[in-house]
Design a protein that fits this description.
Blueprint: H1 8-31, H2 37-42, H3 45-69, H4 79-89, H5 97-104, H6 115-127, H7 129-139, H8 144-153, E1 158-160, E2 164-169, E3 172-177, H9 188-203, E4 209-214, H10 234-238, H11 244-253, H12 255-261, E5 273-277, E6 280-282, H13 284-289, E7 294-298, E8 302-304, H14 307-310, H15 317-325, H16 327-336, E9 340-341, E10 353-355, H17 360-371, H18 376-387, H19 390-407, H20 411-425
Parallel strand pairs: 3-4, 4-5, 5-7, 6-8, 7-10
Antiparallel strand pairs: 1-2, 2-3, 8-9
Helix pairs in contact: 1-3, 3-6, 6-7, 6-19, 8-9, 9-11, 9-12, 11-12, 11-19, 15-16
Length: 427
């Protein structure tokens, strides 16, 4: 077994030599003819050893390396920039931005799986208390795009961000998801727009409360009906366009954390949030509702978490769901894709109000007026401290980064995507 020297400079050289050898062996096995399953399985050996070497190196040097990457925590690189700095500082530790961009054009089945290295890296960052807390704060700072748009927004009641619109009225900032082509399914583009929208609501003094709701759909099956969310965009996942950094980690550490904990940094502010669940909250949509201060659901709406069928981990639902519905119902939702209707007894744990479609607007307005009470923010902070201390979330996300990056390249997930794609193409 390898013993690193304990010196960061020496050990990054040792790691580079060892990873080069693992990569050469992996490339050889990849091109060698595979006569049976055993041959194919042997080709994964070098990749697994490479991940273990990275884990070992980062366990020794994470704190010092993170200080180097962030100039002693005086700089605040977001996920993609931090990964690029790590790729420069330690050769072969993680893929470069150019390598990730080249891989992105391939279908999920044909990608080379190097996002698993990012899962190891960010798992190590989040596991280390000081680096992990710094990264969480970094990801809760306003995005550059939001700061650029803010002056323009000051004089407007509405801003169009493509798949998301932000509207200000009656003291509330309404984030309206209008990703029409995909029935509000989430992908990298929507996550980026949602984070910008959440930033704008939090930064704009006209809004005391945030509201998240789906727009009326143009899809023939749901013509004119509002839809909250249909979960992850499986077409983009099949095509290899759902990324670990731009989607899976960014949504949890970015806009969802900003809704739950507010902004960090010089513009630190938090506000209460309302979710309006129309028609359905599937997958990521159901996950989202778990961080809101008030949820209003349509009588006919339902929730599902089909992540197990898809082969992935349902974000932070495994952390949060049990405290709302209890551990047994949480397992039924996660393991058995149980559908819970908002009007069912168990649906009462997922929404504060369940009202007919005609009463949704009035219920949202009433809840927004109530949440403008000045004591709400202080109380939500104390509730959060009791329910989910930041270090609990940080530790969870460390494990999530590692395990979700592996699930993205698991054989069962690929098979599930293939079946879903073939099934859709036949309809």
């Amino acid at each position: 077994m390898l013993d690193f020297s304990g010196s960061l400079d020496k050990d990054r050289e040792i790691l580079n030599v060892l990873l080069r050898a693992e990569a050469e062996e992996a490339n050889f096995l990849k091109t060698a003819p595979a006569h049976d399953a055993a041959d194919r399985n042997r080709a994964t050996g070098p990749r697994e050893r490479g991940l273990w070497l990275r884990e070992s190196f980062l366990r020794l040097h994470m704190s010092k390396l993170y200080d180097e990457l962030t100039c002693g925590c005086t700089e605040f690189p977001r996920l993609d920039e931090l990964a690029e700095r790590a790729a420069t500082a330690v050769s072969r530790l993680v893929p470069t931005a150019a390598e990730l961009a080249a891989d992105r054009g391939r279908g999920q089945r044909h990608k080379d799986g190097r996002e698993q290295e990012l899962g190891v890296f960010f798992g190590a960052v989040l596991d280390a208390p000081a680096p992990g807390r710094h990264l969480l704060d970094t990801m809760r700072c306003p995005t550059g795009r939001a700061l650029d748009l803010l002056p323009e927004l000051r004089g407007a009641e509405r801003v169009d961000l493509g798949p998301v619109c932000v509207e200000f009225r009656d003291g509330a900032g309404h984030v309206v998801i209008c990703h029409q082509q995909f029935l509000n399914a989430e992908d990298d583009r929507l996550v980026e727009a949602l984070e910008t929208a959440v930033d704008l609501v939090l930064l704009d003094d006209r809004a005391a409360v945030g509201v998240l709701r789906g727009a009326p759909m143009t899809h023939p099956r749901y013509q004119g009906r509002r839809v909250f969310s249909s979960g992850i965009n499986l077409t983009h996942l099949y095509e290899g366009r759902i990324s670990l950094l731009g989607f899976l980690l960014r949504r949890e550490l970015g806009y969802i954390s900003k809704i739950y904990r507010g902004l960090a940094g010089p513009q630190a502010v938090e506000k209460p949030w309302i979710a309006a669940v129309d028609t359905f909250a599937i997958g990521g949509g159901a996950q989202l509702t778990l961080v809101f201060d008030h949820v209003v659901a349509d009588t006919d709406a339902y929730y599902t978490l089909p992540a197990l069928q898809e082969g992935i981990i349902p974000g932070a639902a495994n952390l949060r769901l049990g405290r709302l519905v209890g551990p047994r119902v949480a397992r039924q939702l996660i393991f058995a894709d149980r559908r819970i209707r908002a009007a069912d007894p168990d649906g009462a744990a997922l929404a504060d109000e369940v009202v007919p479609t005609r009463d949704m607007d009035r219920a949202i307005e009433t809840a927004a007026a109530r949440l403008t009470n000045p004591a709400v923010v202080a109380n939500r902070r104390m509730l959060r401290l009791a329910e989910e201390p930041e270090d609990t979330f940080r530790t969870y996300m460390a494990g999530y980064a590692r395990h979700q990056s592996r699930r993205l390249y698991s054989t069962d997930l690929i098979a599930n995507l293939e079946r879903t794609w073939i099934g859709r193409s036949r309809t």
